Amino acid sequence: MAGAFAVGRGTAHAGPDGAATAGDVRQAAYAFRGAHQAGIVTPAQDRLHFAAFDVLTDDREELVSLLQRWTLASEQMTAGEPAGDGAVGGDVRLPPDDTGEALDLPASGLTVTFGFGPSLFRDADGRDRFAIADRQPEALRDLPHFPGDVLDPARSGGDLCVQACADDPQVAVHAIRNLARIGFGTVAVRWSQLGFGRTSTTSTSQSTPRNLFGFKDGTANVKAEESAALDEHVWVGSGDDPRADWLAGGSYLVARRINMTIEVWDRQPLGDQEMFVGRTKGAGAPLSGGEEHTAPDFDMPGSNDQPVIPVDAHVRVVHPGQHGGVRMLRRGYNFVDGSDALGGLDAGLFFIAYVRDPATHFVPVQLAMSKSDALVEYLKFTGSALFAVPPGVGPGEHVGQALFT
Amino acid sequence: MRKTLVAVAVALPLLAACTQNADTAPSGGSGDAADPRALTVDSSADACTLSATEAPAGTLTFDVTNSGDQVTEFYLLGEDGLRIVAEVENIGPSISRALTVNAPAGTYVTACKPGMTGEGIRGDFTVTESDEGGDVSADEQELVDQAEANYAAYVEDQSAQLLEKTRDFVERYKAGEDDAARALYPVARTHWERIETVAESFGDLDPMMDAREADLEPGQEWTGWHRIEKDLWPQRAQDYTPLGDDERATYADDLLANTEELDSRVQDLTYTVDAIANGSRGLLEEVATGKVTGEEEYWSRTDLWDFQANVDGAKVAWEGVQPIVEEKDADLADQLTSRFEELQDLLDAQREGDGFVTYDQLTPAQVKELSNAVNALSEPLSRLTAAVLS
């Protein structure tokens, strides 16, 4: 994955001086092609536009053609170039290929990451539209219902997904807008989600950001520098699934739209908030002491014969130590989609995690969380999707080529 | 909310009592020279070092830093070394916590308790006379005792009524008297909703009695009020198969048995004033997250009964501690009184017969109005516990 960086990480996310880095960040450009798709271990950018698509056609060739065209456009846009023949200078009698709003903007660290949903392999009626059902990965199944799920079908599922991340929101939106335009007739947007303020850190050079509860999140994330951990927890290994060897070097993407009941949360006393999370709000240190990156001591006794990190604290319930050591690469974003009908913020965390196998690395953790995490009282799960993310795109290839050959 | 409830057997610090446990930036060894009421405490494995052992009466802040490697606690005790005036618990290694306490002039004892065992590392502490506050009404202990006793009696009474009406309800339901059962459903549940934060504190009973369909874990059987609710109001269900007589009896008997268990457990509970104040806030949160959105009673649409019952319970809890708050923060007391009234006026406008209109009869504007009133009340209510303990 080192080869995926066209510009060094050092310039992408430099020191703590926000003003100085903001300019540098937008100059970053990440190569579209490589061993793994960019946008997974790439240092998490600040903005997201995520789109799920339904495939309208039953024609395999048409689908493959779209993946070819998406690959070319993505390669252009991640390099900071307009899509197709550009936005200006072409035949004045024709609408331009590129929509133009990213003209004059640098690449801004744009990455475009593609995934395939379970319904691409077998649709709702069980039909194998594209002759790939026998290659459907065993783990690529609709996620089970979790307690607390109030999923909106219009915000869940999808045949295909595209994750566009950039340090400029206009660049991320431009990517999804142009890919959707290229796809009209072959695919249609099922749902899309904007995110801001990355909530995770995917590189040790990044500081841990805060979610909308005001807490640091994702301290224990798998980082790009941990290559052994990536192989163990994030990348699908060759031989993991004999039916789906095309996925080796890829990953699974779990997307969950998690609404926070912001107004109620804001009325919780600080001490309670910290007990729900299991960390201090300021420094992010576990309640068992130390600094942010100090390992939590879940056995440390606290007052009143209870452990100092409460039994239902978020940090305990989801900690890898409670789940046989499984870790995720989280890459979520905060979202605020305006306000709901009652004037409350329609806001929360758009959770994205990359894992080697959702059955072992996500489902048990989500179940434990739904069952016994104090935070769940302040959460509503309103969207959910699972995608298989194919490995990186080699020279001359299109994304997902191994699945269709 | 899960945390805001309960019901502990031990009396918490009261009288001149505390409390505001705030997270603060780690501080050095010395207090703020400009403010003699701001003190620092360094709690190490074998020492409890205060920046000063004397302060003028008023609101004192102890910024406690744990420099040891075990969890520590800090106490301000009365002259007898027994009565807890204020405390801060669960300070992890290298973590700081602030303790704010309104202390009148007198002689005190301070104690750090690294490892939370023994009587701690103690020292003498003197609060000197000053012009600023620090007075404690001699009647306060009486008010506190009164509030605690009254609330325990209220919970017991509601639980007894819940049991009686549930018994009646399940009999009608088992006998196939569906109209009578439907009429009793929101009436019986009113007594549950009035003490919901207490009932929910029993983590084993709550899921068996009050789970909604979407709350279930894979493999968990759906039982309790809402299971029966769906059977009585299946109109919104698709392809619903009504329960047979045997199934009805199973669910009904199960609900009654759990209600009896709840009632017996409630008899042993006592409540501290801060638990009562937290309960008031918690009940309004139940309104905000379930009732005002029409999610609680999905099948019967009797959400406004629950709404009113949560407000009833919150109001009783508030009125229990009101005399204490009137002495300590009269403005907050006035605000809470008037906002409870405003919310009640809106609810009264939706009364119909002995109860309320169903949720689907509310216009979006009416729902919004109710929601605004809930928010208006919830904000000052979130300051109630701190005011009671200040």
Automatic annotation (TrEMBL), chain A:
Gene Ontology cellular component list: cell envelope; cytosol
Top enzyme class: oxidoreductase
Compartments, as annotated in UniProt: Cell envelope
Keyword Oxidoreductase on entry: yes
Record family assignment: Belongs to the DyP-type peroxidase family.
Its job: Involved in the recovery of exogenous heme iron. Extracts iron from heme while preserving the protoporphyrin ring intact.
NCBIfam families cross-referenced by the UniProt entry: Dyp_perox_fam, tat_substr_1
Name of protein: Deferrochelatase
TrEMBL record, chain B:
Pfam families per the UniProt record, alphabetical: Peptidase_M75 (PF09375)
Localization: Cell envelope
Span of the signal peptide: 1-22
Database matches in Gene3D superfamilies: M75 peptidase, HXXE motif (1.20.1420.20)
Alphabetical list of InterPro entries matching this protein: EfeM/EfeO_iron_uptake (IPR050894), Imelysin-like (IPR018976), Imelysin-like_EfeO/Algp7 (IPR034981), Imelysin_sf (IPR038352), Iron_uptake_EfeM/EfeO (IPR053377)
Record's keyword annotation contains Signal: yes
Start and end residues of each Imelysin-like domain: 148-384
GO CC, one annotated term: cell envelope
Keywords, sorted A to Z: Signal
This protein's record includes keyword Signal: yes
Main location: other
Similarity comment: Belongs to the EfeM/EfeO family.
Name this protein carries in UniProt: Iron uptake system component EfeO
Organism: Nocardioides cavernae
